[in-house]
Amino acid sequence: MNANSKQRIVLKVGSALIAPERQGCSSRYLLAIAQFIVRCRAKGLQVILVSSGSIAAGAHRFPINARENSTSPAALMALKKAMAAAGQTEMMATWDKFFDFPTAQILLTHADLRDRERYLSIRETISTLLDHDILPIVNENDTVTTDALKVGDNDNLSAMVAAAADARSLVICSDIDGLFDKNPHLNADAKLLPEVTKIDASIYAMAGGSHSDVGTGGMLTKIQAAEKAVSHGIDTYIVNGFKEASFNELLAGKNPGTLFRGSATPMLERLHWFTHTVRAQGEVIIAAADELHSAEDCANLSSDEVLDVKGNFSEGDTILLRSDDGTRLAKARSNYSSRLLKFIAKQDDSKLMDSFTHERSLIAPQDIALLSPKANPMEETS
Ligand SMILES: Nc1ncnc2c1ncn2[C@@H]1O[C@H](COP(=O)(O)OP(=O)(O)O)[C@@H](O)[C@H]1O
Ligand SMILES: N[C@@H](CCC(=O)OP(=O)(O)O)C(=O)O
């Protein structure tokens, strides 16, 4: 990492580092991380911290039998939300006491990030805090989220925040040295990958889930995060946050774990946000998919090319365009609701339909992202 007054770094810290025993927050690992933050700032870097751990930190406020009695997924979710509310203040207070500069809490949901107006507002707030030397500490607002509203894991959240902040680097501090070619907790011969130059299906195939009871997502969500970040030109590291040496090496410009190098040709800001932060609410299956080569082809989609419409969405919602063999083609905004599109798709009279859609194209032209075939197995409509 090079020191440059305008460069920004996002540091993501996993739950196992914050509350290793689920007995409240511990400074055991946080001291080295806090020193790293201080030293980065001394070098002129602007630091944003994405901190997990509110649920792990809040767990000890609830008796063991509250967890044991929460047998249904809904009851467990309600308990976790309460733990997050109790643990968030403890976590913020713990971070705060390491620093002699102010910190600021930012709690986000996916609903905030996918809304363009709110997203731009978040960008502005982060910049204003950094310009005043305040350390933003970001977490998902677990207390208010539902499945439809949440990002779901702080690896992906940290990549969205890094993109929003135009960061140069993203450092994901985990409980393991980096990405191995297979899960090292299950395979003694697993090997560490020092650098990943291309994130494809073979890289996703290496990733297993979390083995700890405090982590969320395991390596899968870290690779998803890296994919988001590198396409924004952000160098992404997965490092072992248990080891103080990881931070010394980063400060010395070395790679202590796995590096995913940021793309030399980053996507434009709005296109990146639309591709990697906004999610699709439905799908439209189209014919003649091989003729779809550009955003303009998508914008000119005609009614007789629509074969099927899946899910319920409203006018202006984001949809995934797929070919009839299931290949992902593009993400786009629909100018029509799913109901109306279904009606259009069923009509045989294409002339009538073309006159119907003449005034307003099926696809809104300003937000169209062509997609590569699916590498990420978890990427679905949501
Ligand atoms: N290929 C892999 N390489 C490294 N770790 C892996 C791999 N597959 C699965 N894992 C698991 O991912 C864990 C790290 O993710 P997670 O438990 O979610 O931690 P965090 O709280 O840091 O996000 C590792 O400890 C390991 O158990
Ligand atoms: N937002 C949650 C953490 C979610 C999460 O991704 O956790 P982790 O895998 O430990 O980074 C919390 O504060 O407990």
From TrEMBL:
Family: Belongs to the glutamate 5-kinase family.
Main localization, broad class: cytoplasm
Pathway: Amino-acid biosynthesis; L-proline biosynthesis; L-glutamate 5-semialdehyde from L-glutamate: step 1/2
Places the protein is found: Cytoplasm
Family annotation (Pfam families): AA_kinase (PF00696), PUA (PF01472)
Residue sites binding ATP per the record: 12, 174-175, 216-222
SUPFAM superfamilies linked to this entry: Carbamate kinase-like (SSF53633), PUA domain-like (SSF88697)
Reaction(s) catalysed by this chain's protein: L-glutamate + ATP = L-glutamyl 5-phosphate + ADP
Entry EC number(s): 2.7.2.11
Binding site for substrate: 52, 142, 154
Residue span, Aspartate/glutamate/uridylate kinase domain: 7-240
Assigned keywords, A-Z: Amino-acid biosynthesis, ATP-binding, Cytoplasm, Kinase, Nucleotide-binding, Proline biosynthesis, Transferase
Lineage: superkingdom: Bacteria
Function: Catalyzes the transfer of a phosphate group to glutamate to form L-glutamate 5-phosphate.
GO molecular function annotation: glutamate 5-kinase activity
Positions of the PUA domain: 299-346
Protein name: Glutamate 5-kinase
Gene name of this polypeptide: proB
